[in-house]
Amino acid sequence: xxxxxxxxxxxxxxxxxxxxxxxxxxxxxxxxxxxxxxxxxxxxxxxxxxxxxxxxxxxxxxxxxxxxxxxxxxxxxxxxxxxxxxxxxxxxxxxxxxxxxxxxxxxxxxxxxxxxxxxxxxxxxxxxxxxxxxxxxxxxxxxxxxxxxxxxxxxxxxxxxxxxxxxxxxxxxxxxxxxxxxxxxxxxxxxxxxxxxxxxxxx
Length: 203
Prior knowledge:
Blueprint: H1 2-109, H2 114-118, H3 123-136, H4 145-152, H5 156-160, H6 170-178, H7 185-197
Helix pairs in contact: 1-6, 1-7, 3-4, 4-7, 6-7
């Protein structure tokens, strides 16, 4: 009987030890589960932070794209305005060239004004007078007969010009000449007059 009681006591002790071990294991599992929960919470928070950061980056990119589009539109507008100004200046610069050529003619022929040089001559007579006098005096780079006729006539270039542009530089006048069609009568005369007005310089 004593042996049986001892056996039962031993079994009870073994079961108590096993239960204690299971309780310890359950506690360890609870700790591990808690650790996993904490890790999941950390990951969720990190994901939220990344999402917020991505949203901020996306908003910044959208803002930059909008700024870039606005800059492009402004650049296109400025470029258009610049082209308009350039087109307005071209006839003025060409007028400068004609006036410079007329001034050179007056200097070479010893007259103060174009009206004084012209007198009562018509365009053909004035052209012949200027051409012959420049030839007789051996003037370098003097324009052709056709170009002098162009210079003496009230042409479209002079009609579109303006005295306000007389401060134009040589390169500005050259650029204005190059806007004219290469094969046009005006272009040939303007190139010839440019060489005369600027002492042999070429367009």
